[in-house]
Specification:
With about 375 residues, this protein is of the alpha/beta class. The protein is about 35% helix and about 15% strand. Bound molecules: pyridoxal-5'-phosphate (PLP). The site of pyridoxal-5'-phosphate has 15 residues, from helix 3. Its EC number is 2.6.1.50. One of its GO terms (molecular function) is glutamine-scyllo-inositol transaminase activity.
């Protein structure tokens, strides 16, 4: 019988158990499902802030909402620019448009797929307000260099850590703590989940206040029913928060298990011809990415998938600078704030079309799963 790989789409590939059931029941029986008056979301924020050693954590409804709060904190004027990567989930980019700012795509490092700081620097101009770095697949982006650039030019550095729970930057800093704002997702396909949910961390009191207000309709509840600024309802529910709290306890074990099996695969594939293996330093292994500098990733992915290995080429259908969204209007019939399609990003485009292969990774993989993947590569 063929070996089944645990998947994040089912209970065999998740860590949802009695603790989460008890958490959900506790909330339902309390009668209070809203985090405005409940205790769970506030407790989750304290536990997240403690885990990351940050002054503030803010719970919200999704990773995209978390990134929207971060863009709000960066305070672009309409038409200002935010530099980001084309190799990411659209949740990184949507909040930029939602604030009427322009996403400017910088090209990526052909080895890691993470932002190339040199490419970012070349795009900084008078309208740049922020840099949004993504720690792709769980590998730490070069945030020390990006923070230096941000400081030099008076920009906000936002870290999208949706795929990089407990990943660490060189020097041992948890990713999410090098920039002014770090954003996390609790969506079904992340390291830990409550279905949908988001968290933001920051050490800045003023930014934390701004983001809290935006997530609650600009309603300063310490004052009364005053709407002091523009905002939406991005509140996390108590049900989400209670499940997320139980998941947060399990997070270190999830990342540790992924690191252990990833190390086994790295060892098995060491020296493989035509393949660049990922650098394990600080990696949180959301996926296990491989780069084929000579191309051929789609053919290899098809062969591996045919052998029952959860492998895919490219990660995206096209990098986000090539997405169809740029061909149409943004609001109504207006294309504001865009003027023309994004510039090419040749390295990102080559990775997606030819060079990048990703293997789904999971904390429930056993040595047998790893060895089956290695066998797919002839090891
Ligand atoms: C999943 C993801 C998001 C969006 O998070 P949601 O919770 O799905 O809104 C943003 N950025 C990256 C890199 C992601 O992987």
């Amino acid at each position: 019988m063929a070996l089944t790989f645990p998947s994040m789409a089912g209970s065999d590939g998740r860590t949802l158990g009695d603790e989460e059931v008890a958490a959900a029941e506790r909330v339902i029986r309390s009668g209070m499902l809203s985090s405005v008056w409940g205790t769970e979301a506030r407790a989750l924020e304290r536990e997240m802030a403690e885990l990351y050693g940050s002054r503030h954590a803010i719970a919200c409804s999704s990773g995209t909402a978390a990134l929207h709060l971060a863009v709000v904190a960066a305070a672009p004027d309409p038409g200002d620019e935010i530099i980001t990567t084309p190799l990411t989930d659209f949740g990184t980019v949507a909040p930029i448009l939602a604030q009427n700012a322009v996403p400017v795509f910088a090209d990526v490092d052909p080895v890691t797929g993470n932002l190339d700081p040199g490419a970012v620097e070349a795009l900084i101009g008078p309208r740049t307000r922020a840099i949004m770095a993504v720690h792709l697949f769980g590998a730490p982006a070069r945030t020390a260099e990006l923070r230096a650039l941000a400081d030099e030019h008076g920009l906000t550095l936002i870290e999208d850590c949706a795929q990089a729970w407990l990943a660490t930057s060189p020097g041992g800093h948890p990713v999410g703590t090098v920039g002014q704002v770090g954003c996390f997702s609790l969506q079904q396909w992340k390291h830990i989940t409550c279905g949908d949910g988001g968290l933001v961390i920051t050490d800045d009191d003023r930014l934390a206040h701004t983001m809290r207000l935006f997530a609650d309709k600009g309603w300063d509840r310490a004052v009364g029913r005053h709407h002091v600024s523009f905002g939406l309802n991005y509140r996390m529910t108590e049900l989400q928060a209670a499940v997320a709290r139980a998941q947060l306890v399990k997070l270190p074990g999830v990342v540790e298990a992924r690191r252990r099996t990833a190390a086994r695969l790295l060892k098995a594939l060491d020296g493989l011809d035509g393949v660049r293996l990922p650098d394990p330093e600080g990696h949180a292994w959301w996926l296990f990415p491989l780069v084929l500098p000579g191309g051929g990733a789609p053919e290899l992915a098809e062969r591996l998938a045919g052998a029952g290995i959860p492998a895919r080429a490219g990660y995206l259908v096209e990098p986000l600078n090539r997405a169809p969204v740029w061909d149409g209007p943004v609001y109504g019939t207006s294309r504001f704030p865009l003027d023309g399609p994004p510039a090419p990003c040749p390295e990102a485009e080559r990775l997606v079309a030819e060079n990048l292969l990703v293997i789904d990774w999971n904390e429930h993989y056993t040595d047998e799963h790893v060895d089956a993947v290695a066998a797919g590569f002839g090891r």
